[in-house]
Amino acid sequence: MATIASLLRERVTLQVNSVDRIFLAGYVPKLQSEGMVVRFLLDRGFPIPSPAALGRIGSAYVRAIERFAKRHRIPVVQFKKGESKELRARSYMEQAEREGRFGVVMIGVAQEKTAAWRGFRRGGPDSHPHFSYRRMSVYPNHYYFYIRDREFGPGFIKTVVCAPYGVWIYLNGHEWAKRQAAKRGIDFRALDNGFRSVADADALAGICDTFCWRDVERFFEYWQARLPSPLSAADRDRGYDYRLSIRQLELSDTRVFERPVHVRHWFELTLRDQLALGRPDNVQIVFGRKITSRTPGRFRTRIIDDGVEPQIQAYYKHSKAKQYLKGGSALRTETTINDPNDFGVARTLNPTNWLALTASATRSTSGSWPPSLRRATARPTRPRLLRSCRRRPMTASQHQPCASATHG
């Protein structure tokens, strides 16, 4: 009779451990206080640092986006309220893939809430009025640049017209690994957001192990230099540049089974063993964090099987671990870190924080397995992740400039 251990040992044809979804925010450190905003406007050459000056910068940015879209024949789409942006952009991504195009494939526009600087008159003569600034909630247009990148595949960068000019970046580690495998001539069959089969599993594992923070930083640096921006090159020379922070990081362990019946059988056998996954004593093991009476959040296990593929979920503060069926033939165990502070790690994107977060996510993913399998499925933290990042300088073949932003 098959057991949960024997199914893993005898029926799994491929195991892939990889960083999955990554969501980052970018901010300009020198635009985070009232005095800094005034200094920025003076540096820009405005004799009076008034709100009208910020309005002129924002309007110029919108015109630059319009020129960029027209020059590269990029469709501009106005998102409707409640519309799935991912679904709307998917057809443009698929068309670019069919045509072999890289670059910006669509620009989406959405009115969304954000905190922006707003100025107010505070006395002074009409010849030289005085203004003060404070952060307020506003609903300006945000611009989504959907990109098919040579290194990362699909992703997007979101910008806003208002100071302090925040940006948001979405990328996917599995899609990056697919691009690297294709470039190396490694045959594979894709799973939605993953791999169904691969000709050289060891080579794929090596690719996944080398993905790191610097790859993310390179992506942003490359596109920052090519997309319209409210910040000029002169602004950046004066120190008005972005710093990236990690807002969400997912790491997953995907096991592909020989047949769909095998993965469903495994899930049915293990379901009872996993019902207590969300209890505080198990959460302490899964996430590697001490749980006390003061630890915030609800400790619970969620079993979701109503009209969808079955899922098991456990929670710790803002983060969660999840096991579910993927594409009918694979089992995915996934940790989603929605706030690095949950694990005592700062948000800034750098090698130290990246290594600490990926180690925490790896530990949580391994801890999500049934107790009898945790030792067998545990995957050691590999410090070579950091070494790989350091020894891989950017080469001329990486991120080669495109003939145009759309038709690479």
Task: Return Rg in Å.
Answer: 24 Å
The dominant shape is elongated
- Number of structural units classed as domains: 2
* Strand arrangement across the biggest beta sheet: 2-3-6-7-8-1-11-15-14-13-12
Structural class: alpha+beta
Proportion of residues in β-strands: 25-35%
The number of strands is 15
Task: Describe this protein with a few key phrases.
single chain, 408 residues, alpha+beta, 2 domains, eleven-stranded mixed beta sheet, two-stranded antiparallel ribbon, 13 helices, elongated, disordered C terminus
Annotate the secondary structure layout.
Blueprint: H1 4-11, E1 12-27, H2 34-43, H3 51-71, E2 76-78, H4 85-99, E3 103-111, E4 114-121, E5 131-138, E6 141-149, E7 153-160, E8 167-172, H5 173-183, E9 188-191, E10 194-198, H6 201-210, H7 213-224, H8 233-237, E11 243-257, H9 260-274, H10 280-287, E12 301-304, E13 311-316, E14 319-326, E15 330-337, H11 351-367, H12 374-377, H13 384-391
Parallel strand pairs: 2-3
Antiparallel strand pairs: 1-8, 1-11, 3-6, 4-5, 6-7, 7-8, 9-10, 11-15, 12-13, 13-14, 14-15
